[in-house]
Write a structure and sequence with these properties.
The protein is of the alpha+beta class and 489 residues long. It has helices at 10-18, 24-42, 50-67, 109-116, 159-166, 183-189, 229-239, 280-295, 309-323, 330-341, 350-358, 362-382, 426-432, 463-476; strands at 45-48, 78-82, 120-125, 137-138, 142-143, 145-146, 149-153, 172-177, 192-195, 221-226, 266-269, 299-301, 388-392, 411-414, 417-420, 438-445, 451-457.
Length: 489
């Protein structure tokens, strides 16, 4: 691991921990020193329990010395987790002042699996209040800044998680993704992320829903962030599997990658779309990636489309707004029902769409859900002829931070054109609706040095194929841009 073991990949760190080349205590101390130097500038980690991390590291080292066996695949590895995941004896706020003193008595299922794998959980990373924004700022902890530029957003809602991995504060992170909350920050911060096939990872213990709830959104999933595709697989293998209540009855065995070589894949390229135009730098990136894939010998199709982007995005938003009402108070929900009932029948405004979606009757939700299943069928048909699809991750690189701007007044600019603030997530919503495995791969940079990523999509449960393809593609790409903070002592 050379002279900077705390900045090495998670696989290198875990190998060194198991083989005794470095102790967990030493690695924790190196990371704490790095935190002190770096985190004040970017504000990614908002709760740090140094003493507990030291104690857990001592336990890991003693276990290895006594038994000669590691605790698990993440033996002694210091990591952070998103502040929306409940963590025993560690403040878990989901960025909300109302939860400022919330210290859970039970780990989220994902956190429990990390502990079982031997991880040392050092702290929690920042998120917008209740994960309800695509940049990361809240009244409790303030704003998380992009490690490449203090004026740019780190994205959201897993902005603290992506910034922490990018800046070397953690080699692995667990974030959550509903409308791109893993993938957008990974793209903006120059790291890898995977939104797994829906249902692979238990989301019990994620806020929102309210603390203590057993259910979660049927569009949201947890997933890994890392600095390499191989590290995504390492963490996915730890997190994926049945919930504790289902564990006695079934096991998960994800299919192996379909191919070892990039040239054997049938690859779709969807570089741009009238439904969400991308900027010049992003189009150029997709063209370069397409040429690399062709040169490697893969069969490429840049014409076929699995779905209509605008139609799919609208269907996703309707279901997203509907599912988000579960956390609303009775008074707030009944107020929305009353306002929706007063809308004019011909009101087609975005606000009317929002209110009608938030207050769907069950029959209307069933019809919307049927539309989702129809779109999933189109994706399945597409992947009967293709193995992988490559799309933009977002219309642009990281946009300016707008946390001080009221939400209705926010916007982004794409090649000089003013665009809707939420259009940042349109490409992410495309696969979120179908619950497909989707990875972000850092693939280039703008002239200003901001990271640019591409989105890699595969068929349902082909998560390992997606990760393997991402790894092979990364071998053809120039080295990813590295956040300046990662080089600090």
């Amino acid at each position: 691991m050379h002279g900077t073991p705390h900045l090495a990949s998670a696989r290198d760190q875990t190998d060194s921990l198991r083989q005794g080349r470095i102790s967990s205590v030493e690695l924790v101390e190196l990371l704490l020193k790095h935190h002190a130097a770096v985190n004040p500038d970017i504000n990614a980690v908002v709760t740090l329990d140094a003493e507990r991390a030291r104690a857990e590291a001592v336990r890991a080292d003693r276990h290895l010395a006594r038994t000669g066996r590691p605790l698990g695949p993440l033996h002694g590895l210091p990591i952070t987790v998103k502040d929306s995941l409940e963590t025993v004896r560690m403040r878990t706020t989901s960025g909300s002042p109302t939860l400022a003193q919330h210290i859970p008595a039970r780990d989220a299922d994902a956190v429990a699996r990390l502990r079982e794998a031997g991880a040392v959980i050092m702290g929690k990373t920042n998120t917008p209040a209740y994960c309800a924004d695509i940049q990361t700022s809240n009244a409790l902890f303030g704003t998380t800044r992009n490690p490449f530029s203090p004026t740019r957003t780190a994205g959201g809602s897993s902005g603290g998680a992506a910034a922490a991995v990018s800046a070397g504060l953690s080699s692995l992170e667990v974030g959550s993704d509903l409308a791109g909350s893993l993938r957008l920050p990974a793209h903006y911060c120059g790291v890898y992320a995977l939104r797994p096939s829906h249902g692979l990872i238990s989301s019990r213990g994620h806020i929102p829903r309210p603390p203590g709830w057993l259910t979660s959104s049927d569009l949201m999933t947890l997933g890994p962030l890392a600095r390499s595709a191989e590290d995504l697989e390492l963490l996915l293998e730890v997190l994926a599997g049945p919930s504790p209540t289902d564990a006695p009855a079934w096991r998960l065995e994800l299919p192996r990658p379909r191919f070892a070589r990039l040239r054997d894949h049938r690859v779709g390229i969807w570089a741009d779309d009238p439904g969400c135009r991308v900027d010049t730098a992003t189009r150029a990136l997709l063209e370069r990636v397409g040429k690399l894939v062709r040169t490697a010998g893969a069969q490429v199709d840049d014409v076929s489309r699995p779905a209509d982007l605008a139609e799919s995005d609208r269907a996703f938003q309707a279901l997203m707004f509907a599912t988000s009402t579960a956390s609303a108070s009775d008074a707030d929900f009944h107020g929305e029902v009353e306002r929706a009932g007063k809308l004019a029948p011909d009101d087609a405004s975005p606000y009317a769409f929002y209110l009608r979606s938030r207050t769907l009757r069950h029959r209307d939700w069933l019809i919307a859900n049927e539309k989702r299943e129809e779109l999933r069928g189109r994706w399945a048909d597409y992947f009967s002829r293709h193995d992988i699809l490559i799309t933009p991750a977002a219309p642009t690189a990281a946009v300016a931070d707008q946390s001080s701007v009221p939400v209705p007044d926010r916007f982004i600019t794409v090649d000089g054109e003013r665009r809707d603030y939420w259009s940042q997530t349109t490409w992410a919503n495309l696969t979120g609706l179908a619950g497909l495995p989707t990875a972000i791969v850092p693939a280039g940079a703008t002239r200003e040095g901001l990271p640019l990523g591409v989105q890699i999509v595969g068929p349902h449960l082909a998560d390992r194929t997606v990760i393997a393809f991402a790894a092979r593609l990364a071998e053809l790409l120039p080295p990813p841009v590295v956040a300046p903070a990662r080089g600090r002592p």
